[in-house]
């Protein structure tokens, strides 16, 4: 099975090297062969330069597209290069490569088409569970997805996820541009594919900040709710 | 409507027509939008030349003042235009996104071969 890690990166010069190196080291140690592709979303810092110097596989977007457009480029890459599994992996050190085997396992065993690495399934003190407000937001989205599709997803905004070939094809054609995670889940469920959550531990980001912050929260919820409604109804 | 007011109004509309033509000839506005704006301006000219026509329409819609009728119509048209343009912008956004993705993927492929 060909496995691809998609690493969207926007101004991640501080941590892109350690993230990519962690994958390479992991491959060497565990005799796995996870390929990875860095999608440099028009960074204005040295992200691209570092990737080229280290000879990482990198797609330099000729213009900034935002997170949705960048991730979708990764799915297009996976589709064109015939990958069986694509895993979304953050550049900022939040995700741990040793959990990749856990989130691709249900796809291996044909138990699910999409697997989400969830922070909320197993209570763990070490786990970085993000802020109180953010957890409320995630709850609300979770409830909304349940009412739209009948499926309960706990960590709706987790960016640590693996998908199989069918979903790679769907995402390469249609992927939300602004706040993609919850909306893409609705899209998958609408197509009657199966989503599974597995517990993972996430770290606090090494640098940079979440794309969702402060005054944008209300707008974020409004946008996501409307997008999910449209996605569940639209073609 | 005094003749002075008519002249001022017609001059103003004429300037707008010139503006549209100017951009159109430089291919800054595509033909379909030129047609739209010119027909809008033609209607305005018609109303300026024959104010009775305007008054007739005003009565027809049961509006008391002709100016209110004009405002209502103009605001309606401008709303429509803006919403239409938002749609055009969103469509173009999608197209540009696709272009950026495809070009970037091609560049990546080319780099790998070298």
Task: Kindly describe this structure.
The complex is a heterodimer of chains A (235) and B (114). Chain A is built from eight helices and seven strands. Chain A has 235 residues and is of the alpha/beta class. Chain A has one domain (3-233): Spore Coat Polysaccharide Biosynthesis Protein SpsA, Chain A (Alpha-Beta Complex). Chain A has a seven-stranded mixed β-sheet with strand order 3-2-1-4-6-5-7, with helices on both faces. In chain A, helix 1 (16-30) links the parallel strand 1 and strand 2 (34-40). In chain A, helix 5 (132-149) packs parallel to helix 7 (180-190). Chain A is globular. Chain B has helices at residues 3-25, 31-49, 51-60, 66-113. Chain B is elongated, with a radius of gyration of 22 Å. Classes of the chains: A alpha/beta (235), B mainly alpha (114). The A-B interface holds A 37, 57-63, 65, 69, 72-73, 76-77, 80, 177 and B 93, 96-97, 100-101, 103-105, 107-108, 112.
First-residue to last-residue Cα separation of chain B = 75 Å
Ranges of chain A where pLDDT stays below 50 over 5 or more residues in a row are: none
Spatial gap, N to C terminus of chain A:
31 Å
CATH superfamily of chain A: Spore Coat Polysaccharide Biosynthesis Protein SpsA, Chain A
- CATH architecture descriptor name of chain A: Alpha-Beta Complex
**CATH class division of chain A:** Alpha Beta
* Tally of contiguous helical segments of chain B: 4
Provide mean pLDDT of chain A, rounded: 89
Oligomer: heterodimer
How would the global form of chain A be characterised? globular
Count of the separate structural domains of chain A: 1
Order of helices and strands of chain A: EHEHEHEHEHEHHEH
The CATH topology of chain A is Spore Coat Polysaccharide Biosynthesis Protein SpsA, Chain A
Q: How does the helix and strand content of chain A classify structurally?
A: alpha/beta
Helical amount among residues of chain A, as a percent range? Answer: 40-55%
Number of strands of chain A: 7
Estimate the strand proportion of chain B.
under 5%
Describe the largest sheet of chain B: none
How many helices of chain A? 8
